[in-house]
Write a structure and sequence with these properties.
By secondary structure, the chain is mostly helical. The chain has helices at 9-12, 19-46, 48-51, 58-90, 92-110, 116-119, 122-151, 158-166, 168-186, 198-204, 206-224, 230-238, 245-252, 254-263, 265-283, 297-325, 327-343, 345-349, 355-377, 380-386, 393-410, 412-422, 428-447, 461-473. The model is unreliable at 1-15 and 471-478 (pLDDT under 50).
Length: 478
């Protein structure tokens, strides 16, 4: 089968989905995804140990709460396989609607759950069930959003359009943490400005979960108006839709699966270090073991939000840069910068005698880290889907993205805390861990090919292989 030229009449027709609809449809789901992560993570630390796991031991209750939080990571690869199969057989639109609806209903219902005091053991069981539903739905959300964005992108702007679902990370962070801060200031604080007031424990924590219904309704309305992408329609017309996309992905594209997983690794590790671990380290008392920076919760979250603004800006800037210079070249450069940043952790995070200097260095640390995060995260919305042809693109990109989440997301906070404790409160080993993950990503990038100029409308493995061979002959391959 011959490759389809990107400028042929079948692909040069104007897209049926307007740019505004594509942006909204791809952005809303990932915004809810990361909003959900931050809302649940905050509740898991502040209220769930008391409301759902009252074991009588604070540490045991906290571990149980975070164990339920981590259960979503286990469910995500299962969701990736299910929604990838559905998306590659039935189309992107139907799959996106189902994944968003599943995620939205589960998040909303968490806000309505009875607590252990009123329902006994059924309360944590229901919490675990809904958390697994969230993880299952999230397993297919990102890939579908990335495919909607990139398969509807104008020629030469795939990476730019691929940044729209990526913007869900900074937007979700700002909305979730901003809402918690508003609740914090609005509720009474008899013992000082803490979210663990009686009102917050009684009902305030439910507001962020119930509020997610607003975004879900908007997202469903936008996604129901989508029409199927031309790339998928061409695959259907050519009769290359596979009965078992997972089997074809593993048989023909196992190399891309492995490379995609490790290309994403440094991004995940950096993200969770700058959010979950940084919040723990920054707010931990200076007299604790291991010692933290002792910055107040509200102050530190505001500092993180400032850093996340840079995250969003550089996520957008990375798209046009990747379209101009290539995904591989840009990511190699930023990955080297992440290695240097990891090795320099002690410079930014060492407690100083001058509190102003400590605060200034911490803010600079967050700004630099989130800037690097935006620059590496932005091109991923285009790069991971580009590794696979149309008929297995949903399955391949979903599995690579979500398996990487287990290696980089589920393990990163645990490993970071263990290394921080082992180093006696210093972060040098945590930074070394980030640098090591970035080295693995760098190796994977060197082993991969540039995908900027490949035929994104290749419907199957045969067309993709033919297109790649032609690119090599004219010098536009790796």
């Amino acid at each position: 089968m011959s490759a389809i030229s990107p400028t042929s009449p079948s692909t040069a027709a104007a897209p049926l989905n307007s740019p505004g609809r594509v942006i909204a449809a791809s952005l809303v789901g990932t915004t809810i995804e990361f909003y959900d992560f931050y809302v649940y993570a905050t509740a898991a630390a502040l209220v769930f140990p008391k409301l759902f796991f009252p074991t009588g031991n604070e540490t045991t209750a906290l571990i149980a709460s975070f164990a339920v939080f981590g259960a979503a990571m286990v469910a995500r690869p299962v969701g990736a396989i299910f929604f990838g199969h559905l998306g590659d057989k039935r189309g992107r639109k139907t799959t996106l609607v189902i994944s968003l609806l599943t995620m939205g209903v589960a998040t909303f219902l968490i806000g309505l759950l009875p607590t252990f005091q009123s329902a006994g053991l059924i309360a944590p069981i229901l919490l675990l069930t809904l958390r697994l539903c969230q993880g299952f739905a999230l397993g297919g959300e990102w890939s579908g959003a990335a495919l909607v964005a990139t398969e509807n992108a104008p020629e030469g702007k795939r990476a730019l359009y691929g940044t729209f679902p990526q913007l869900g990370a900074p937007l979700g962070f700002i909305v979730a943490n901003g809402l918690f801060l508003i609740i914090n200031f609005a509720l009474p604080h008899p013992d000082g400005p803490t979210m663990q007031s009686d009102a917050f424990l009684a009902w305030g924590w439910r507001i962020p979960f119930i509020f997610s219904a607003v975004m879900v309704i908007i997202g469903l309305w936008v996604r129901m108006k989508l029409v199927e992408s031309q790339a998928f329609r061409q695959a259907e017309k050519k009769g290359v839709i596979r009965k078992l996309p997972l089997s074809d992905t593993c048989h023909y594209h196992w190399r891309e699966l492995i490379l995609g997983t490790f290309i994403m690794l440094a991004t995940y590790v950096l993200f969770y270090l700058m959010t979950t671990f940084a919040l723990t380290f920054g707010t931990k008392s200076q007299d604790a073991t291991p010692a933290g920076l002792g910055i107040g919760y509200t102050s530190f979250v505001l500092m993180q939000i400032i850093g996340v603004v840079f995250f969003g800006i550089f996520t957008l800037l990375a798209g046009p840069a990747a379209d101009m210079m290539g995904r591989r070249k840009l990511l190699i450069g930023v990955t080297i910068a992440i290695i240097v940043f990891g090795l320099s952790f002690p410079v930014w995070t060492t407690l100083r005698a001058d509190a102003m200097l400590t605060g200034g260095l911490t803010q600079a640390f967050l700004v630099v880290g989130f800037t690097l995060m935006g620059t590496t995260f932005g091109p991923m919305g285009a790069l991971l889907p580009e590794l696979f042809p149309t008929n297995v693109r949903y399955t391949g990109s979903a599995i690579a993205y979500n398996v990487s989440s287990i290696l980089g997301a589920a393990l990163a906070p645990i490993i970071a805390v263990a290394l921080w404790t082992k180093a006696g409160g210093s972060t040098w080993m945590v930074g070394l861990y980030l640098a090591g993950a970035a080295v693995l990503t760098l190796i994977s990038l060197f082993l991969s090919r540039e995908t900027k100029d490949l035929n994104y409308n290749a419907a199957s493995f045969d067309e993709e292989a033919s297109d790649f061979e032609n690119d090599e002959l004219v010098g536009t391959g790796v």
